[in-house]
Specification:
This protein has 171 residues and is an alpha/beta fold. It is 44% helix and 13% strand. The chain contains six helices and five strands. It has helices at residues 6-19, 24-42, 59-73, 92-100, 113-119, 138-149; strands spanning 51-55, 79-83, 105-108, 122-126, 153-156. Helix 3 (59-73) runs parallel beside helix 4 (92-100).
């Protein structure tokens, strides 16, 4: 397995799209499929498990939405999506996968977040990805702490939120 730093990951995404035939929506779709396959086939998460998908407004969150949508289509019924961050900054690709998540409970911060964490047997962390380049604070830091404190099985898209892709020290 090859591990990429932040700049290399961004460059690879751009090169892939430029050389075609895939676009950024296709990249998110592929990432969502890989995550959904990993949960259902590698980890053998049962369709009756309670999944909490935590999505930030960036591409990592879009990957999480794509995975949630696909899992729903595969028969997983107890899925909740916790939306963290400003949806106004979301990309067109993110918005597309958000719309694909019809029939899935979506919750914004300020709702009863505690009950979501208490019920979850699996947490899919799609909050922050390889683009993180600053210290985490505010509601994102609060959610990362809740993820870390949870007894649920945790699976991260790209890397655990709060871990920079260029070092091993959390920021």
């Amino acid at each position: 397995m090859r591990i990429l730093d932040r700049e290399s990951a961004a460059a690879l995404d751009s090169q892939t799209v430029q050389k075609g035939p895939i676009n950024f929506k296709g990249l998110m779709s592929n990432a969502g499929k890989v995550v959904a396959d990993f949960l259902s086939e590698e980890l053998r998460i049962g369709k009756g498990e309670c999944l909490l998908v935590i999505c930030g407004p960036g591409n990592n969150g879009g990957d999480g939405l794509a995975a949630a949508s696909l899992l729903r289509k595969r028969g997983y019924r107890d899925i909740s999506i916790l939306l963290v961050g400003k949806s106004k900054s979301a990309s067109h690709e993110y918005s597309y996968f958000f719309r694909q998540c019809f029939g899935i409970r979506k919750v914004r911060l300020g709702s009863d977040v505690e009950s979501l964490f208490n019920r979850a047997s699996v947490i899919l962390d799609a909050l922050l990805g390889t683009g993180l380049n600053r210290a985490v604070s505010g509601s994102a830091l609060d959610i990362i702490n809740r993820i870390n404190e949870s007894s649920a099985l945790k699976v991260s898209v790209d890397l655990p939120s709060g871990m920079p892709s260029n070092s091993s020290d959390p920021i």
